[in-house]
Task: structure prediction
Amino acid sequence: MDFKDLNPILHSQLRLAIMSLLISVKEAEFNFLKEKTNATAGNLSVQISKLKEAGYIDIIKQFQNNYPQTICKITPVGIEAFDTYVNALRTYIIP
Amino acid sequence: MENNQNEMTHSESMALIASMINKAKNRFSENGLLYLWWGWLIFVCCVVQFIAIYFFKENVWYVWLSTWAMAIFQIFLIKKKRSRQMVKTYTEELNAFVWLDFFICLMLLIIIISFSGSHQLIYPILLVVYGMPVFLSGVILKFKPLIFGSICCWAFSIIALFIKPQFQLLLVAVAVLIAWIVPGYLLRSKYKHSSH
Result:
């Protein structure tokens, strides 16, 4: 069987969790990701920045009722990368 | 959750993906409130108009103006809800467009019927139009009571052709009860159950 290399950006627990959440929704606030992943704000912030640098997510910073709000959204590049990652994983798991 | 890149096996990766997708998917965001408010309002309008026509020979068409007050209140409510929302799903977006489409079609049909003078057709056509968003919402939310309600609306639209206009009002009230009010209470209970 042909084993494909796993994308190192996605093959990390927190970044994969973030991408899996974002692939299921249109957009999500930073606090939603923090709540669902049980990550610390600092760690989440670092991993989100890495995903943004890779072009996998968009980050929108805005104010809502005078409070800062960070919204994350998966990009078409991110969807493609996630799809490729899942297909590569299948080659390892499915006999 | 930590960022342990090397410790994650392939099976763990797959399990993590499935678990996160489920966490996002299991949020049931439809609380049923709008179905209940609109349902009860239209139910009361139909019953009041029926009583006025049948017992007092008066057409109190202006009771329907209350729907405009409700529409304005709804805009406020949606704005408030959006400001608190931590996540936007594709389901919610699609559902919102279905109801916007319903509102536009409803307004256009009321204008067309008013101009054409075919007032006897207003309730059968309203029932057809009521069924459309209820059916689509039922499919989108995978909620069978809404699908059942929409089928009742469409069946009632045919029945309405054979009964007098004032009794058609009662038929609309029953349709709203089955298609909006009952599913509204069921959605509310499902929402409360899923958020605890």
